[in-house]
Amino acid sequence: MTTLIARQSTLDAYVFDVLMPDLVGHDRRPAAFVVYLFLLHSAQALGRDQVPASLQTISVKTGLSKSAVQVALRHLKRRGLIGAEEVGTQVNPVRQVLRPWRRRLEVVG
């Protein structure tokens, strides 16, 4: 008998209330939103902000082409949603997932 254990992921409301309309609607970059969701979910599953994820891995896991992933990553870097510096190797990069809205909430709260 096989038992499936579902992983539950909790995302900040900000991701869907503000970030999704901004990236998908305003920026017209739905691939960037999909890539960010993948990286954010992976970061939460690992319990840290750095995610080992190559272009190939992101491409396979999201269903996007590698070129679409590259464009999305560049856009996410410009928007300050992932770190500008990649660590790791070129073959096995580690990407830092940023949550800038949390810093803003800490300053306000």
TrEMBL record:
Protein name: Helix-turn-helix domain-containing protein
Organism: Massilia aerilata
